[in-house]
């Protein structure tokens, strides 16, 4: 059973471009969480999705950031018009249905660098 | 959402036990206590979790205080590969994990 997969692992963008980060949860998992980690900091929750639904986006910046988890395919975190402050590691995690308060399994992350 | 407090760093000698403390005085009755660790340039790795009773698995043991306001992760014999940042986390209202800055564990040979 493959773990959580994220791609790309590294992404370089210039200011003003768009960044698309993809996350494929573990097989059978229908809950996806996105977290952001700035250098030397802990992870900060961004958004929680189930298939075709955003459950909690309280950690998402109000502008430029969006997330989706379609019926088919990976979850996508999209950052429009990136700025240098968006440079960070972005991790997604997944958990099985019906077990939202238990273990989450993390992917290896996408490291975004904005020039 | 409840928060956790951990020491910034700890040191251990190889093959000795390590006790990593965590305070979570505002924990709610249904919050699980999760521990993850993160090696450089990697995603967090699940270590152990519990609700009320002490828990053991092949990686570690988790001792939970009777009032649940604190817990301790126990690595029985530290190895060099255990050097990492250890996060004690609680679940938020929607199940999202709330991370602090964690404890950076150094293991000396």
Overall average pLDDT of chain B = 91
Largest beta-sheet details of chain A: 7 strands, mixed
Shape of chain B: globular
Number of DSSP strands of chain B?
10
Order of helices and strands of chain B: EEEEEEEEEE
Strand content of chain B: over 45%
Count of distinct strands of chain A: 11
Largest interface, and how many residues on either side? A-B, 27 and 25 residues
Helix content of chain B: under 10%
Proportion of β residues of chain A? over 45%
List SSEs of chain A in N-to-C order.
EEEEEEEEEEE
Assign a percent range to the helix content of chain A.
under 10%
Largest sheet of chain B: 6 strands, mixed
> Spans of chain A with pLDDT under 50 lasting ≥5 residues?
none
Radius of gyration of chain A: 13 Å
Task: Catalogue the unreliable spans of chain B.
Answer: none
What distance lies between the first and last C-alpha atoms of chain A, to the nearest angstrom?
A: 37 Å
Alpha-beta classification of chain A:
mainly beta
Q: What is the straight-line distance between the termini of chain B? A: 39 Å
Structure description:
The complex is a heterodimer of chains A (115) and B (109). Chain A has 115 residues and is mainly β. Chain A has strands at residues 5-7, 10-13, 19-24, 31-37, 43-50, 53-56, 65-68, 75-79, 88-95, 105-106, 110-114. In chain A, strands 2, 4, 5, 6, 9, 10 and 11 form a 7-stranded mixed β-sheet that branches. In chain A, strands 1-3-8-7 form a 4-stranded antiparallel β-sheet, with no helix packed on it. Chain A is globular. With 109 residues, chain B is an all-beta fold. Helices cover 0% and strands 47% of the residues of chain B. Chain B has strands at residues 9-13, 18-23, 33-38, 45-50, 55-56, 61-64, 70-75, 84-91, 97-98, 103-108. In chain B, strands 1, 3, 4, 8, 9 and 10 form a 6-stranded mixed β-sheet that branches. A 4-stranded antiparallel β-sheet of chain B has the order 2-7-6-5, with no helix packed on it. The radius of gyration of chain B is 13 Å and the shape is globular. Classes of the chains: A mainly beta (115), B mainly beta (109). The A-B interface holds A 4, 31, 33, 35, 41-45, 48, 55-56, 59, 91, 93, 95, 100-109, 111 and B 30-32, 34, 36, 41-46, 49, 87, 91-102.
């Amino acid at each position: 059973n493959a773990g959580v997969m994220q791609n790309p692992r590294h992404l370089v963008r210039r200011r003003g471009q768009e960044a698309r980060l993809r996350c494929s949860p573990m097989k059978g998992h229908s809950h996806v969480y996105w977290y952001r980690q700035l250098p030397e900091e802990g992870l900060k929750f961004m958004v929680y999705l189930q298939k075709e639904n955003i459950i909690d986006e309280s950690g998402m910046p109000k502008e430029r950031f969006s997330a989706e988890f379609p019926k088919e395919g990976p979850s996508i975190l999209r950052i429009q018009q990136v700025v240098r402050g968006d440079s960070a590691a972005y991790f997604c995690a997944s958990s099985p249905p019906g077990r939202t308060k238990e273990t989450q399994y993390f992917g290896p992350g996408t490291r975004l660098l904005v020039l | 959402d409840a928060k956790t407090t951990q020491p910034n760093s700890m040191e251990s000698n190889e093959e000795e036990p390590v006790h990593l403390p965590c305070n979570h005085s505002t924990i709610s009755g249904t919050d699980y206590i999760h521990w993850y660790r993160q090696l450089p340039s990697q995603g967090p790795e699940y270590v152990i979790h519990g609700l009320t009773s002490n828990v053991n698995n092949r990686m570690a043991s988790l001792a939970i205080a009777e009032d649940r306001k604190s817990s301790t992760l126990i690595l029985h014999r530290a190895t060099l590969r255990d050097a990492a940042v250890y996060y004690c986390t609680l679940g938020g209202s929607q199940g999202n994990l709330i991370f602090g800055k964690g404890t950076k564990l150094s293991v000396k040979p």
